Amino acid sequence: MSDFHQNGIITDFHNLTRRPLEALEEDLVGFSKQRPMSLILPSLFSELEGPALAHIVDELARVPYLSEVVIGLDRADRAQFDKAREFFARLPQRHRILWNDGPGLCALDAELEEQGLAPQQPGKGRNVWYCAGYVQASGCSEVVALHDCDILTYDRGMLARLFYPVAHPYFNYEFCKGYYPRIAEGRLNGRVSRLMVTPLLRALKQMFGPLPYLEYLDCYRYPLSGEFAMRTEVLDGIRIPADWGLEIGVLSEVHRNYSTRRLCQVDLADAYDHKHQPVSAEDASGGLNRMSLDIAKALYRKLATQGVTFSAEGFRTLKATYYRMALDLIEAYDHDARMNGLSLDRHSEERAVELFATNLLEAGGVFLDNPGERPFIPSWNRVRAAIPDLLPRMAEVVEADNAPG
């Protein structure tokens, strides 16, 4: 059970009483009359054949307050898209699948590319961006949530708690981030958040002072969680990173656009497990290796817009400062795990820290050598200014793809 502490930067919604799901959903059904709700599910086709998504869909089929479910489907041919339509057909809510590899959406992507507005690389960021555009085009909701499709411990209570702060008609929150402990099979997980992001933020604060942006990010209990909810209008003005820096990038964008009094986080679950990424120490293009590089670059880019000046010497100092802080945290995590009867492999933890430290330097070199890099997909506000009728045409393409027959 979480405590009731508020750190004063963003509001923290705790799970103090284990309020029954039925009571939460009854409230949300009432809220939905004023603030209809949509859910975005960014999915690879392979996840339809995995251990998590079938259960997630079964749980969503019982959610009484959702107006719409939008599934972004990546890496699917025609036969696989048809199979996905059958897979999601049991959802009673209005639902649409964005066939991102289909001819209709590929044609729109090519049109955006001609204008210099298309996502520059495939991945979750691109998938989420197109889903965000469709949610605006469909006009079915005033609140939208997003979560991953590989959550092994999913139950619909997580979604109810995620929606609640933003859907409540008398609350003024624009954005809500989910958090939870990463515990599974008796182990403490969440290495990138625990061993990279937290000590990196604290090392940056030690070097550059308590900048408001760093204080803001450090107040999130799990900044890399893939679960968040927001007013649909927020989607219009934020730029979404195309790489693995999606979660940090979204937090940065809402901080840029809104007062911290309009932002919050919520305790979603006592335990959470999903597909674990390999470290991929020998392959910088995948796994936690790639993730840590992209997150570091996202932080450097944001701090540069805050007036922070970086140099090769500064990145070497940052690496050393981070490394010492991360090693100290490993000891704290080890002791916490032991007290709670959990296991933690200190050797693998220290190897991960060594990789992350190396990647902080590598990301710094990339940042300094590529000042013209365009990591963000343009906001939908900009797309509408350049191609005013694109969103209605996207809606037509999605309707045609999802039509019976």
Protein traits:
single chain; 8-stranded mixed beta sheet; two-stranded antiparallel sheet; alpha/beta; 12 strands; Spore Coat Polysaccharide Biosynthesis Protein SpsA, Chain A
Order of helices and strands: EHEHEHEHHEHEEEHHEHEHEHHHEHH
- Classify the beta-strand content into a percent band: 5-15%
Strand order across the largest sheet: 1-11-6-9-5-2-3-4
In the CATH hierarchy, what is the architecture at level 2? Alpha-Beta Complex
Number of helices: 15
CATH T-level topology: Spore Coat Polysaccharide Biosynthesis Protein SpsA, Chain A
- Radius of gyration from CA coordinates: 21 Å
Strand tally is 12
The top-level CATH class is: Alpha Beta
Globally, the shape reads globular
Number of domains: 1
CATH homology group = Spore Coat Polysaccharide Biosynthesis Protein SpsA, Chain A
Span from first to last CA? 50 Å
Give the integer mean of the pLDDT values. Answer: 92
Helical content band: 40-55%
Residue windows where pLDDT falls under 50 for at least 5 positions: none
Describe the structure.
The chain is of the alpha/beta class and 405 residues long. The protein has a single domain (11-402), classed as Spore Coat Polysaccharide Biosynthesis Protein SpsA, Chain A (Alpha-Beta Complex), CATH 3.90.550. The chain contains 15 helices and twelve strands. The protein has helices spanning 21-31, 53-60, 78-88, 103-114, 124-138, 156-167, 191-208, 212-218, 234-237, 246-257, 287-305, 312-339, 346-369, 380-386, 390-402, and strands spanning 11-13, 37-44, 66-74, 94-99, 143-146, 175-179, 183-184, 187-188, 228-231, 240-241, 263-267, 376-377. The strands form three sheets. An eight-stranded mixed sheet has the order 1-11-6-9-5-2-3-4, with helices on both faces. Strands 7-8 form a two-stranded antiparallel ribbon. It has a two-stranded antiparallel sheet with strand order 10-12. Strand 7 and strand 8 form a beta hairpin. The mean pLDDT is 92. This is Glucosyl-3-phosphoglycerate synthase. InterPro entries: Nucleotide-diphossugar_trans (IPR029044). GO terms for molecular function: glycosyltransferase activity. Its EC number is 2.4.1.266. Keywords: Glycosyltransferase, Transferase.
